[in-house]
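Q: I'm teaching a short session on how sequence maps to structure, and I want students to see two examples side by side rather than one. Could you give me a first protein with its sequence written out and its structure tokens following it? Keep the formatting plain so it prints cleanly on a handout.
A: Of course. Example one:
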Amino acid sequence: MKIERTLNMSPEEFYEAMQESMAHQINVELSKSLSPEDIQTGYSHKVKTTTKNGTRTTRFAVVKAIPGKEMVISHHSQDARSKTSYKIFPDPAGLKLVFEQNTEYLNPDVKPSGIRLKITDILSIGKINRQLTDLEMKIEKKRKKKKA
């Protein structure tokens, strides 16, 4: 899946917002104490969960983090591996974001196909676009606070 979108913010604002968002999510979900600056190349963690089917391990890693330019994240589980990249390019309107996500399904039972695959893609694209719009609004509020 690939999404290209122009956002009304600087590359640095986008990168910092990504770091803040990821640190917040990790702090809430894993009860860890991370600062946004901890989210950089090489950061990783794994989570073990116990289900009725046994213990599952999910790994999360920041593969590459270049401030204001690019961030690449990977998720690995027994069922699937995904790689998500955020490439940031300066643009007269702010920045051009190229979002790419590739998922490799290791368990054929969880791999969507046919109409289910199309619906999954449509929902994912909609969700990502909503998140980007929310991010733009958050950055705008931050700017207004700085001016006040």
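Q: Perfect. Now a second example for contrast.
A: Example two:
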Amino acid sequence: MARITQIRKCKRPIRVESRTVMDINMDTRYFSMWVYAAGQESGQDLRPLSIQLDHERASQLQGYLETFLKQKE
């Protein structure tokens, strides 16, 4: 597992072509996410991608999510 040390906003195009699921867990130090392979809504094929955020990065991500949630489609 790797701890995220930077979150950078970019202008990459966003493409959504399939569905999947994400598992989360947290303890007092980290918020963790595990992402399953595309098309694995049942969560059977865990990808090696896992993300751990400390309090500082989680707070930064929260700001981006709040901005996103305030936008209208």
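Q: What should students look for in example two?
A: Point them to this: The first helix runs from residue 55 to 70. Also worth mentioning: The radius of gyration is 14 Å.
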